Amino acid sequence: MLAVWVEQLLGFASGALAAIREEERYPAFMAWAREEGAELMGGDLAMAQALAPILWSQTPLERAGFTCEPLARPGRNEPCWCDSGRKTKHCCGAVAMPAEVPDHLMWMLSLRDWKGPTLKAALESGHAPAQALLEAGLIAAETGQRGRAQQILESLFQRADWSRLPAQAEPAFELLIDLYQERGFTRKRAELLDEVLDRGPLFLRGVALERLCLMHLDSDDLDSARAAFVRAQQALPDSPTLAYIEAMLLLHEGHEQEAAERARFWFRRLARKGDLEPEQLQFLADLAENPGATLADQLLNAEEDLAEPLASLQALLAELPPAPGLNIGETENGELEYRSSAREDTLFAAWQKHFQVDVDDDSALGLKGDPWLQAGDWLRELCAHPEWLDSPRVVQALTLALTSRFGSLPWMSPSLFEPLSDRLERWLERIRGEGEGPFLWDSADNAVLLRTGLALVVGMERGARERSRRLAERLLTLDDQDSLGLQELVLDQLLREGRDREALSVTETQRDDTPVLGILLGRALALFRLQRIDEANEALRDVHRHNPHALPMLCAEQTRPVQLGPDNVAEPGTRAEAWQYRTLMRDQWRATAGALAWLQSQIDD
């Protein structure tokens, strides 16, 4: 019965709003309620008359600057406010409604209908109830009106009085952050996050902090992520969100053991306080037991429709038999080539009917479309046909898809990327077993295996750093032209592991004539750590000649993000190139005693 009432109420309220907009006068509206309105209520004239004054009183009027003209609710023995002439107790006061009418309903419907200058003026009036803004914004987003949703939700969060925000504002806040991200409003996104962290309600601060940290982690800016976490500790010292975020941060930094230790600390501390729900306490207990597995399970559960097929994929990869051999040949020049077999082509064709997205051959890690739009289909079909993974082109497409969605999450490496790496490495052993010649990108179908290797290096870089580096080194021995740009990645990983002599050795192999900022700065850091200061100073001069922005940006405690170019490529010598290196490696410079001070002294000189 309640569902029928809600449907009737919405139909009546929508008709009432259209009638009010024609004149915005109460007598004319009541005339509508007794005639057309009664029909909308299934012929129930008494209900129509009882609803009409309630809805009128909460309707914003354009002629009144978007304020309402509420009617004074009469006493039982006073004339009824529906203008029937009868006493209230014998008229609308005798009507029992199935449920209370929301006091923001007509504002919400108005925000749904208004467009252009009228909507803008209504929002700027500041009279819209927060709950109406919240619901209208979510409805606009659900119906694909992204710009309208942003406009309405911005009004919700631009209020001076944060206490007026409804407790259900959390999904609206996350939606607005996502809209800013999708539509390229990076400055607005940063300003909203800062404002919420500075003075927003407590229930939103944890969400804002989580999003801020995740944004920095997604861009590999571990230094900024750590700064955001420290800020959160100061603002929300007893928030359970801190345990979750610190575990993520430490796993991104490669400190798996410390992540478990800190999770146990948070569990003991918050359990003693006794303020947590049983579900929260169990999550912290699981986090303390195994941070990576817990975060992975949480991610899968959050995927809704994809949770089951992703879990099935994990099970499939865990039990996958060894990969079969490949057709590897040697050319007259001694180069090694992989050529796809007829069986592999057949398997790939069967897979592609469901995957439907092509690999971008002009991009190292690109796909021509979003495979996750139909992921439920291809995941289930792949689990039903595990033999498809005998085709390197299927493994390539799957790895690219997984890297695009999960490559920045270290806790997904054991269950998704490492089993696929087992498969690829068996194929790479087969290649090297055929000879010592180069395995070049442009030869035959070699790019399929090399591109898969790059995707796996990226996918494991955060969750299995050592294995990622070993795979990158193996790929470099096969493709000594470094078509994948793996030299810098190997260097960065060696520096993170404190293997400075090996890192320095990597920088001494110039694979092309174009200087790479990461190689130049990596060489400088390795030399500084090895106390070879004169050579380190010379390396910094090379850095300055290549990119004069690099040292100042690396030393700055805070600096504004710089947009990368097309395809997220930073041109050599630009601020974008300097910013990209800072996000990737500043944490290593900061962790090296005296390194940033040394850089600053070189700038001052």
TrEMBL record:
InterPro entries membership: SEC_C_motif (IPR004027), TPR-like_helical_dom_sf (IPR011990)
Pfam families the record matches: SEC-C
Protein name: SEC-C domain-containing protein
